[in-house]
Amino acid sequence: MTDIRVGVAADAERFLRTDTVVWFQEELSAPVETQLLGVPADQRFAAELDAPTDPTTYPGIYGVYPLELAVPGDRLVPCAGLTWVGVHPDHRRRGVLSAMLRHHFEQVRDTPGTAVSALHASEPAIYGRYGYGLASLELPITLSRGTTLTAPGLDEAAGAITTQLVSVRDAGTPERMHACHRAVADMGSVVGAASYYERLCLSVPEWLRDKEPWRVLFARRDGRDVGFAMLRRDQKWEDARPSGSMDVPLLVGDPATRLALVRRLVDFDLVSSVRLRTGYAEDPVLTWVGGPRSTSTVSTYDCLWIRLVDLPAALAARAWSAPCDVVVEVVDTYAPWNAGRWRIRADASGAATAERTDADADLLLPVEALGAAYVGGGNLVGRVRAGLVTEARPGAAAELWRAMRTDVAPAASMMF
Ligand SMILES: CC(=O)SCCNC(=O)CCNC(=O)[C@H](O)C(C)(C)COP(=O)(O)OP(=O)(O)OC[C@H]1O[C@@H](n2cnc3c(N)ncnc32)[C@H](O)[C@@H]1OP(=O)(O)O
């Protein structure tokens, strides 16, 4: 078999061209570095083969956005945001992705301070084999114009919010978005680096065509930004009646701020439906409107996939919900340094350690089960019942799960 070598992609144009072939996209007029904004040059990687290949593209590419993940305990921890993954159609199904992911895990392992990798999957069947667990769900919610949102306990705080609509092209918009997001990241969501918000605010002509530029509705309290909704409207008329739609990929703020923002979003002139791509399993929006049948539609998709790359460091980085003392036997093919037996102990203060042990295992689990449970979304008892985790000591899965679960389900993470 041909050898596959993975390293930094020195040729940015070749990297971009590979992406264009993989995703069968039109070529954009924006400069190469503009299109790659947010992926630092030393975080663009490529696979090369020993055999001769097309010199204008790479056989495979991937990139990493430097992110922060909001974990239990109200903390932001560094997280490698795996993205731009693509294998040239001529080289698929020969192990290029597998080689790139082995490389990615070694890179993350060797990056001080970063213990987890996360992604959004193009197809859900790809990443479980590499140790990523499905950590949260996304429930896009569509609301009709004028939907009533009932939240008596938040009315006063929401009433103190004013809103301001700006364009992504207005000076300072990415910086304001970044500052708001870092200040109020919901548990389970990710926050980008400053350059990621510049990327969100790019106005590439081919992405716009007949569409309005993205806009940002900032929420302000006492003269300060406290949240925002990113939005775009699409004009439409049916039988001479306005039936425009609005797309909202990002909604940030504490509950009262989100209430004020959503109330404003369902009260835009000429817009008859608002699609919040930010919904999640325990999203208060679903409660405020009176349940799923009070929406126009609500659907369910996989959202963030999380992979523990440095298992003991990752487990120690979050707060734990209850004490536990459980020995787990971890199966990990792609990051073999995690494989084997670990004693996981959490105390009443919420601190936890994972240490190597020779003691008998209480639980046998694939590393993706810990990734799925990392922000409190993937029920370990449910996995035992589903035959995906094996319990040697009855009650061990419940003990570990009670320590890892969280009071509310993880929020949906923004797309990256
Ligand atoms: C985080 C992100 O960026 S998500 C974006 C992912 N990229 C895409 O979807 C772009 C289009 N697809 C591609 O570029 C490629 O098909 C990739 C990247 C998904 C897979 O690359 P390949 O080099 O073909 O994968 P590789 O040969 O290493 O396959 C490894 C295993 O995954 C399986 N696999 C690969 N792709 C898929 C898929 N789409 N669905 C199910 N299984 C898959 C292979 O069958 C193989 O299984 P095996 O180990 O049991 O034999």
TrEMBL record:
Entry keyword set: Acyltransferase, Transferase
EC id: 2.3.1.-
Residues reported in the UniProt entry to bind acetyl-CoA: 85-87, 93-98, 122-123
Database matches in InterPro entries: Acetyltransferase_Eis (IPR051554), Acyl_CoA_acyltransferase (IPR016181), Eis_dom (IPR025559), NAcTrfase_Eis (IPR022902), SCP2_sterol-bd_dom_sf (IPR036527)
UniProt-annotated catalytic positions: 127 (proton donor), 416 (proton acceptor)
Superkingdom to which the source organism belongs: Bacteria
Domain Enhanced intracellular survival protein: 311-410
Keyword Transferase found: yes
Keyword Acyltransferase belongs to the record: yes
Any one Pfam family match given in the protein's UniProt record, by short name: SCP2_2
Catalytic class of the enzyme: transferase
Alphabetized GO MF terms: acyltransferase activity
PANTHER family referenced in this protein's UniProt entry, alphabetically: N-ACETYLTRANSFERASE EIS
Family membership noted in the UniProt record: Belongs to the acetyltransferase Eis family.
Assembly mode: Homohexamer; trimer of dimers.
Protein name: GNAT family N-acetyltransferase
Source organism of the structure: Nocardioides caricicola
